[in-house]
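Human: I would love a firmer grasp of how sequence relates to backbone shape in proteins. Could you go through the record with me and say what the backbone is doing? Here is the record:
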Amino acid sequence: MIESSIVGPTFRKSFLLIVLVELISFALFYLKDVADARLYFFIFLFCFLIILGLYQFKWLVFVAIAELVIGSKGHLFSIDINGFVVSIRLAIFISVMLSWLIMIDKKEFFRAIVVTFRQNKFLFWLAVVGTFSLVFAFLARTPVKNIFFDLNGWLFFAYLFPWSQALKTKGDLKDVLAVLFSAAMAVTAKTLIFLYVLSHKMPLAIDLYRWGRNTLWGEFTFVEGGLSRVFSQSQIYVVIIFLICASVFFLKIKISFKNKNTRFFAWLMIWFSSVIIVGLSRSFWLGLAAAIVIFIFSIRFFCHFSFKRQATVIFSMTVAIIIGYGLMNAIINFPFPKTDGFYDSTALIAKRFSEDEAIASRWSQLPELKKIIFQHPIIGSGWGKSITYFSSDPRVKTIINPTGKFTTFTFEWGYLDMIIKIGAVGLIVYVLLLCSILKRIKTLTKKNSGTEESALLAGLGFGVIIIAVVHFFSPYLNHPLGIGYVILTIVIIKIMNDDVTNAESRP
């Protein structure tokens, strides 16, 4: 299923369209002084999305999925309306929800809400807790602007209703996989292009840097010589799909490099691993490491792999990561255009482990976070609750702000952020939601034992684990990227569960 999805026409068309969208975004960046051009294009794009949703709603859902993967913070296109920035992610969200509401009749609408909540009871209780937190925030007279920008990411849970309606069959699942993989490959290509251009100090480097920062796609840190860190929040999907590839590679495919499937997934893992290294995200590395440990534990005690086969898995993954590391070095030291000399990226990785500004900034939040948590530990303090602390992050502690004093309502400590906003009750409900997803994956995996579907399900489960671990230090479960993945996983589980149920009911 997965290979046929990736090499099929949907994958190729999706990839080419994503490349086109990226090129248009870059072109509009050059027209930043011509505000009308960006405004007119954004209006045109929004109208096109509405028409697309009404004509072929499923395609609009694919657009929403692809944007979540490639868009990082969702500002690949954006316009400023009297100080209020409207991003393309928000425009797509409005388009999806509006198109769905226009097409669905009143009875079907209420039925969809009831059925979805009945199948996902913890999501219902999370909505109840979230609504209470919203009321609490207004009663506490929290600034409306803070409430909106804190809450808007959570609104992406509403995607579950239209996505469940649009995606129902195995054919839809294949298309979703094609879009996911094409978007992940686009993020991979974009990351490595940035690495190549920045490391070689090409004339295009300044424009690429400004475009990447202007669209909030990534963070680019020049370390020394030709070494640069290229990080994007979108790379979380590369990490996840790396584990999905590993699951299919080791759980379904017979490992033999004479087998084209083996070579195919091996190359995917190498390309994705290079991006995981280039991003230099300690949170991603920790999440991936935790998922790999659980993966190895699972194949030993649940799949009953022999010690030899288990050793082969560990060795193969290690080799893929080492080759990915070599690929990164090859890009940095590619002889055209000529560089100043050979650059060893181990210095970049060593510096990443030794630098402590970001870590110190996180720790400096803790005393203030604890104070607010103890105010309302059970029910939370509501959306938009802010703290003031002193940060050592160089992006905050500047000549203009030498003390590093900073006030924010978004916190790096993801789970503490949840306790502050929706309380321990809300956090428990969210954790139970994730556990229920993993439980359903386990049940379906047993029913599909030995098939490619079971390997896919296992990979999706490891993706949930990755995001759950990363969320300790970098907020994703309260961000559209993490929420979008949770919703997509629920939808895929539903498709596969319905398929199993229909197969069992056939005479």
In short: The radius of gyration is 23 Å. The first strand starts at residue 78 and ends at 81.
